[in-house]
Amino acid sequence: MTTPILSLQNVEKRFGKNHVLRGVTLDVAPGESLVVIGGSGSGKSVMLKNALGLMTPDSGQILFNGEDVTQSRGKTRARMRERVGMLFQSGALFDSLTVWENVAFRLVNSGIVNRSKAKDRAIETLSKVRLGSDVADLYPAEISGGMQKRVSLARSIISKPDLIFFDEPTTGLDPITADAINDLIIEQVRGLGAATVTITHDMSSARKIADEVAMLFEGKIIWRGKASEVDSSGNPYVDQFVHGRADGPIQPAL
Amino acid sequence: MSNASTRKRGIPNPLAWIGAAALGLFAEIGRLAVFSARVKAAAFTPRWYFGQIWKQIIQIGFYSLPVVGLSAIFIGAALALNIYQGGSRFGAEQFVPNIVVLGITRELGATITALMLAGRVSAGISAEIGAMRVTEQIDALESLSASPYRYLYAPRFIAALIALPMLVLVADIIGVMGGWAVSVFGLGFDSTVYLRNTLDFVTRNDVLTGLIKAVVFGAVIALMGCYQGDKSKAGATGVGRAATLSMVGAAVLVLASNYIMSTLFVEFGL
């Protein structure tokens, strides 16, 4: 059996009295596209931040390629992060840097290449997400929200990572731009052969990019199956969420 | 209903309130101490982002020159007027240049500069880092294998340590010249005599104590800005609150550390 590239085992996280993750267990195989769905406040972003090492779980284990990285810091953590990309919900582009400096940040920061070569690589990667070299010297505030997402996507794939996290990649975009982002994710990620973990509540996005779908509810994975099975899961929570009904076991977050 | 439960639900127990406030204060001091230690560790060990440090020296030092210069000239001028007015009560008007240069170099040059920078720089750093925190830019930095302590906080800390003494030196010169201008053009002092008295009276220790204070004030201003920004809560209110807290905290700590340092300088005869 192949070692999962990412494995969360019984991960728990609390913030004061708020018990957000209550034992999340999840495996992601190399090259697999897993989409985690769940309502607002279900703990999706917290799960992702724990997996990426931006937060430390209160208990449980996180394994990256079989290596325990739950409490890792310093070089071990840096080694893991070199092989991981992340597209943040807000894009999280550095507003004091130009578009190409954002895209090439990892290359320049790690000293892999000099600035001139890094700029060439950034422009090449921008072309993969359908952005021309004319945007390279602009600042993030000077481009649209959809373009910012594409720049962020370019930043997450430039170092050819083995695993990419997508946090609500289509949130805040119009349906056409959202679909274009989904296409780019599929095209670029398949091209790299990277595994992906996407968290979203956009079901059309989930159906399009997922090999498998898992549902997080009240801090636990309550269902996991193939993307083609999500509409006939037989799980009342998944059914309610997938069909966007107010009536059902999940109470609307009002 | 028992008395105990009435107290629990109704009137707050003052001892419990004081206890909670004290615990909160100690916890905050502890968090600030740990944060400061991590920033200092990042500032004094490689790797250094020289581009970021230079950018911050320009931001903190160069762009603060107008506000520091204007503040210093008015403080120096007002100081000369007040010393002249007070000194004239017992025929000591001639000491205006001596007291102006002493007051500016040992005390006011550094303190006024630091207070102005608590507003301009500490609040600015805090707002910038707070905005980066709430827009996930700091998380993005970490995800790209860059430490925010090395990339964001240490450059601001180092830049403040370098820029503050330079600004204080400028404030000292401009402050003394403010006193000179008022004395010569308003109070009838002879220009050459005023400047000669100033230069004869001021000692290296007077200037040095002001510069030592400036280094400490620089550390306080940068650390408070970075700390409050780093723990900023989401939203415009959170970032605004962080900016306010950093400014107020930096100003209070500048004044408190100024008193402590002045005491030590007197103790050691500096």
UniProtKB/TrEMBL annotation, chain A:
Gene3D superfamilies, A to Z: P-loop containing nucleotide triphosphate hydrolases
Keywords, in A-Z order: ATP-binding, Nucleotide-binding, Transport
Domain of life: Bacteria
Protein name listed in UniProt: ABC transporter ATP-binding protein
Annotated GO MF terms: ATP binding; ATP hydrolysis activity
Key word Isomerase present: no
PANTHER family: INTERMEMBRANE PHOSPHOLIPID TRANSPORT SYSTEM ATP-BINDING PROTEIN MLAF (PTHR43023:SF6), PROTEIN TRIGALACTOSYLDIACYLGLYCEROL 3, CHLOROPLASTIC (PTHR43023)
Pfam families: ABC_tran
Entries under InterPro entries matching the protein: AAA+_ATPase (IPR003593), ABC_transporter-like_ATP-bd (IPR003439), ABC_transporter-like_CS (IPR017871), P-loop_NTPase (IPR027417)
Domain ABC transporter: 6-243
Automatic annotation (TrEMBL), chain B:
Name of this chain's protein: ABC transporter permease
One of the record's GO molecular function terms: phospholipid transporter activity
Alphabetized InterPro entries for the sequence: Permease_MalE
Coiled-coil annotated residue ranges, if any: none
PANTHER family attached to this UniProt entry: ABC TRANSPORTER PERMEASE PROTEIN-RELATED, PROTEIN TRIGALACTOSYLDIACYLGLYCEROL 1, CHLOROPLASTIC
One Pfam family this sequence matches: MlaE
Organism: Hyphomonas jannaschiana VP2
TM helices/strands, residue ranges: 57-81, 157-187, 207-227, 239-261
Keywords: Membrane, Transmembrane, Transmembrane helix
Cellular component, GO, one term: ATP-binding cassette (ABC) transporter complex
Record has Cell inner membrane as a keyword: no
